[in-house]
Amino acid sequence: MTFEILPLEPADIPECFAAAQKAFVEFSRLIFKPDHLSTESAELLIKSRIQGFNNRNLQSRNFKAVDCETGTIIAAARWRVYPEDELLIKSVDEIVEAKLQPRVPELREDVARAFYTMLNQGKREIAGIEKDKDGRTVKLMRRVELESLFTHPSYQRRGAARALLQRCIQEADLLGLVVYLEATQDGKPLYENCGFEAIRTHTFEAEKFGGEGAHQYTIHDMVS
């Protein structure tokens, strides 16, 4: 199978959403109550993602890997470029609240809120470069932040995710920026094989918030 890397378009969002649901099964079970979202909830989330895509600024990058024979989207990635130090305008609570939108009936709100709070606090601790007089992080370092990377389960281990990741790394190299990302246990081997170093591992105990199991997420970076 051969594939090509192309820019992701708004019209691709429904197909990407379906592929991501299959790729992120463990995450979906963590955040949502049943294994599968209702049609109504899926449509609402897709609509929200399309709106978010259309509202993204010039710092955002969205790419897809497409099967050259079938035209199927087999993988996708999203990253954001911060060419200057990022001044934090919103609190962790405000950022997390935005992540919970739109609320669907299947959402485990307590679990999702605690999970996203953990990740955002971790980012501020690792990437923070300036604090205010109260000790709160107010500025994050210049970086390229990989926000999402997935491969459809039927097409894994064929090089698509690595090719997308390399595109992200190349942009960071050209700009002289650090690549920052958060990895699941499944994604960790790919990142480490591509030269990323684990800085910190978070263990999220979902049972404390009404969820199930313990889940590990590792913060990585690569200095260009």
Question: What would you say this structure looks like, in words?
Answer:
The structure is a single chain. 38% of the residues lie in helices and 30% in strands. With 224 residues, the chain is α+β, with helices and mostly antiparallel strands. The protein has one domain (3-222): Gcn5-related N-acetyltransferase (GNAT) (Aminopeptidase). The strands form two sheets. It has a seven-stranded mixed beta sheet, with helices on both faces. The protein has a three-stranded antiparallel beta sheet with strand order 4-6-5. Helix 4 (92-99) packs across helix 5. The longest helix has 19 residues, at 109-127. It is globular, with a radius of gyration of 17 Å. The model has no long low-confidence stretch (mean pLDDT 93).
Topology:
Layout: E1 3-7, H1 13-23, H2 25-31, H3 39-55, E2 60-67, E3 73-82, E4 86-87, H4 92-99, H5 109-127, E5 128-131, E6 137-140, E7 143-151, H6 160-175, E8 178-184, H7 188-193, E9 197-205, E10 214-222
Parallel strand pairs: 7-8
Antiparallel strand pairs: 1-2, 2-3, 3-7, 4-6, 5-6, 8-10, 9-10
